Automatic annotation (TrEMBL):
MF GO annotations: FMN binding; oxidoreductase activity
Protein name per UniProt: Reductase
SUPFAM superfamilies: Flavoproteins
GO cellular component, one term: cytosol
Length: 183
């Protein structure tokens, strides 16, 4: 069975990412459980130093744990906010620790922000292509104005489920296909 990692990309205090990540995980395990197993991975659980700095012993262990966790998946769904028209810096830093762990795997995107997190997804598509990740076409984008009460309580509109369904179908199909070339 395929194993898909749903990665919460924000580490910010007071973040909305946990709510969106939980929604994404609950959708997957309810609607797509027969096709894959899913695991919610929270970047906040990994104390990664800035790439290029000498890690402490604890940070070295976090780097290893992050690498091993990400290598264990056949595909991914990245749940990301948009900060200043881009992905969170902590997530970019975390991705910079990975290369072979991600090669020839599929990725889908769930984003949120003022414009649905689209700039974050655009940036991720460029980064992920360099990492040899195949990004699927369909994405789920939540508006901080329309899908959150007071920009903090997640109350997504039901119409997002159609895109979530299509995105997971694509991630699953591409993950199956790419698994054949990884051996």
């Amino acid at each position: 069975m395929l194993k898909i990692g749903i990665v919460i990309a924000s580490v910010r205090e007071g973040r909305n990412g946990k709510q969106v990540g939980d929604w994404t995980y609950n959708y997957a395990t309810t609607e797509k459980a027969e096709e894959a197993s899913y695991e919610l991975v929270d970047l906040k659980d990994y104390d990664l130093p800035l790439l290029g700095l000498q890690p402490t012993q604890e940070q070295g262990a976090a780097i290893k744990a992050w690498s091993e966790k990400m290598a264990s998946f056949d595909g991914y769904v990245f749940v990301t906010p948009e900060y200043n028209r881009a992905l969170p810096g902590a997530f970019k830093n975390a991705l910079d620790y990975l290369q072979p762990e991600l090669n020839n795997k599929a990725v889908g995107y769930v984003a949120y922000g003022g414009l649905g997190g689209l700039s974050s997804i655009q940036t991720l598509r460029l980064i992920n292509a360099e990492q040899e990740l195949a990004s699927v076409r369909t994405m789920v984008t939540f508006s901080i104005m329309a899908d959150f009460v007071n920009m903090s309580e997640f109350k997504p509109n039901d119409y997002h489920k159609d895109n979530a369904n299509k995105m997971f179908d694509q991630v699953i199909a591409w993950s199956k296909a790419l698994k054949t070339i990884r051996g």
